[in-house]
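Figure 3 (text version): C-alpha cells given as input.
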C-alpha cells in the first residue's frame, strides 16, 4: 500500500501542470463601448460595465496596442469598472488588465472580488501610471497582473472583479477633474482545470484506497 501511494505521489509530481483557459476577455475591439454597458466579452463569456454615481460620458479611445478601449470621465470615489464571468469547473482564477488615464483622471484604484455582486473584498490597491495608450504598440507600463484570486472564486456560477476609484488624487498629482478620464483595456480572467493525466492518477489513487480497505 505504501509503495503504491509513493508511486502515485511520484507520478503526480511529474504530471503535466494544468494549463490556464480564458474564461472571459475584453479587448473592446468587437463592439467598441460608448455606454456604461454591460458589454459582452470578446472571448469566453461574461459582462463588463461601468458605474458612476453622477453623470459620465463613456467612450472608446485608443487602447494599449489597439484602436479601442473602455473609457469614462467625471470620476468620484466609489465609481468603478466591473467584470464578471463564470468559473464553474475551474480553479486558480487570475485577473489581468491594462489601465491608463488622462493627466487629470483618477490615479488610485482598488481591485476587489465578489461571488454575489454586492459584497466585495479587497484584493489589492493599484496606482495608474502617467502616460497614454498607443495604438501602435503595447506598453508594458500599463499592464497589470495576472493577479491570483482567492480560492473562494473557484467553481462559482458567477464571479466579479471591480476596479474602484479610491481617492481624489489625479494621475498628475493634483485633484481629479470632471473631464479627467480613466480607461481600461485587454481585461482577462483565466482559470485552470486538472489535466486528464492528473485526474486519472487521482482516480487511481482513490481506487487503490478503496480496494485496500476492503
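Below: residues designed for each position.
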Amino acid at each position: 500500500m505504501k509503495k503504491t501511494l509513493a508511486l502515485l505521489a511520484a507520478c503526480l509530481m511529474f504530471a503535466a501542470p494544468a494549463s490556464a483557459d480564458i474564461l472571459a476577455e475584453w479587448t473592446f475591439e468587437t463592439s467598441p463601448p460608448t455606454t456604461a454597458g454591460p458589454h459582452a466579452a470578446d472571448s469566453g463569456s461574461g459582462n463588463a460595465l461601468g458605474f458612476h454615481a453622477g453623470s459620465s460620458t463613456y467612450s472608446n479611445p485608443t487602447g494599449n496596442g489597439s484602436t479601442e478601449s473602455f473609457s469614462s470621465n467625471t470620476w468620484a470615489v466609489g465609481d468603478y469598472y466591473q467584470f464578471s464571468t463564470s468559473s464553474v469547473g475551474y480553479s486558480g482564477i487570475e485577473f489581468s488588465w491594462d489601465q491608463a488615464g488622462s493627466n487629470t483622471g483618477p490615479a488610485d484604484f482598488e481591485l476587489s472580488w465578489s461571488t454575489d455582486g454586492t459584497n466585495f473584498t479587497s484584493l489589492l490597491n493599484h496606482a495608474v501610471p502617467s502616460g497614454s495608450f498607443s495604438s501602435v504598440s503595447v506598453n508594458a507600463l500599463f499592464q497589470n497582473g495576472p493577479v491570483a484570486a482567492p480560492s473562494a472564486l473557484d467553481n462559482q456560477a458567477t464571479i466579479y472583479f471591480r476596479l474602484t476609484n479610491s481617492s481624489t488624487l489625479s494621475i498628475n498629482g493634483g485633484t481629479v477633474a470632471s473631464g479627467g478620464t480613466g480607461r481600461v483595456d485587454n481585461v482577462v480572467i483565466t482559470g485552470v482545470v486538472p489535466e486528464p493525466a492528473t485526474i486519472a492518477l487521482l482516480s487511481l489513487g482513490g481506487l487503490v484506497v478503496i480496494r485496500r480497505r476492503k
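The radius of gyration is 21 Å.
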